[in-house]
Structures are given as C-alpha cells and as structure tokens.
Design goal:
221 residues, 4-stranded parallel β-sheet, 6 strands
Length: 221
C-alpha cells in the first residue's frame, strides 16, 4: 500500500513504513476496507498530517478513535465533516472556547481550519470499523502514532500538547516537558466533562499565550 502522506512527514516517518508492524497493519487495514465499512474514507486516513506539515506544527491535540458513524470521521480527531451534527465532545470543546475566548459557536464542526494553522489533530488509532468503536485498536496504529509523538518531542521545540483524558495523558508520557508546554484536562465528553475538570481549564487561551511568548502566531480557535 502506497502511504499517501505529506512530504515533510514522509521524510520524518519513512523508517516506520518499512517496519514489520506497519506492513502487517496496512495489510489488515486494506482487507478491512475491502470487506467492511471503515472510517474515515481511505484517502483521509492521513488527513491530520496532510493539513498540518511537520514544519508548521505548533499545537498537538491527541484523540483516541475516529468517529464510527456515517459521514462523521475525516481524519482529524474530534472533527466532523461539514453538515454533520456535532458530537457531544465537540460541542463541549466549543462551549469551553466560548467561555475562554468569547467566540461564538461555529457553523461547522470541521476542524480543518485549525489543522491548516498548525494544529495536529492526531487520533491514536487512525481507522475504525463502522458502528464498532475501538475495532482497530491494538493492530499497530498506536505504535505508529507513538512514533509521531516521539518525533515531534525530539525534533521540535515549543510545541503545545493538549492531553484531554487519561488515555491521552498516558500516551503523552513520552513528551519532553522541558522543551514543550503540556496542558492536561479531563476529556470533553459529557461523561467526564460534566463532573468537573474540563470546563474552565482555559486551554485555548493558555495555548495562545504560550505561542505568543515564543514569538509564534496564535491559533484562531
């Protein structure tokens, strides 16, 4: 399978594509797309990288699984396609942005506009079977996305990592906190956010303040 990923990332991650785990992963994913309904569409598996180059990356948000409903997943964590109803977690993200920055709710839950500004919206697992959450976990994607995080931590400086929920925080343990700014909070899903620890964290203004302090352009959330 020819991995269609933006050139700067291909240069950084090329060695991963030749490893046995990745060849096994791609074989599994190819078979899944042939025989089952799988999200996101094949051309959007690496959308997070194609919208946010390695050089342009300033903020990293870690998710877990793509959405597994029709038309939702577009390769960016927490993001849905234009015209698709916003899931509860995304609604809570926009509620926090409204409280933090005073911004109105957007018309669309498509977060490509963030990615194009240098926000890597990275799920730990990049594919999922329709209506079967977690169905592509432990097939190799997590090894690949750990390599992505390790590469960013090692080779860049002054990134903002937003780690929401225990899963993201565990995955983020490999990040060098002496070189990067790490923001931690509860997950924005209603099950955790409504119990405290998400609303009022002001991650979006904190991220912009940090970027500004390093002479970098703020994100228009």
């Amino acid at each position: 399978m020819n991995v269609k990923i933006e050139e700067s990332w291909k240069g950084k991650l090329g060695p991963e594509f030749d490893k046995p785990y990745f060849e096994s992963l791609i074989s599994f994913v190819r078979d899944e797309y042939k025989t089952k309904t799988v999200y996101p569409p094949g051309a959007q598996i690496f959308n997070a990288f194609n919208h946010c180059t390695f050089d342009d990356c300033k903020v990293v948000i870690l998710g877990q699984d793509p959405y597994h409903g029709p038309g939702q997943a577009n390769g960016l964590c927490f993001s849905v396609n234009d015209g698709i109803r916003m899931p509860p977690s995304l609604i809570n993200i926009f509620k926090e942005i409204r409280e933090d920055l005073g911004k109105d709710f957007p018309a669309s839950g498509n977060l490509e506009r963030w990615a194009d500004q240098g926000v890597l919206l990275l799920n730990a697992t990049l594919t999922v079977q329709g209506a079967a959450a977690g169905s592509h976990q432990n097939k190799g994607w997590e090894i690949f996305t750990d390599a992505v995080i390790q590469c960013l931590s090692d080779e860049k400086e002054n990134l903002v990592f937003m780690l929401w929920g225990r899963y993201a925080q565990e995955k983020g343990r490999i990040i060098d906190g002496t070189k990067h700014h790490i923001l931690r909070a509860k997950h924005p899903s209603p099950m955790s956010a409504n119990g405290g620890g998400w609303f009022g964290t002001r991650h979006f203004s904190q991220a912009n303040a940090y970027l500004s302090s390093k002479g970098l352009a703020e994100i228009n959330w």
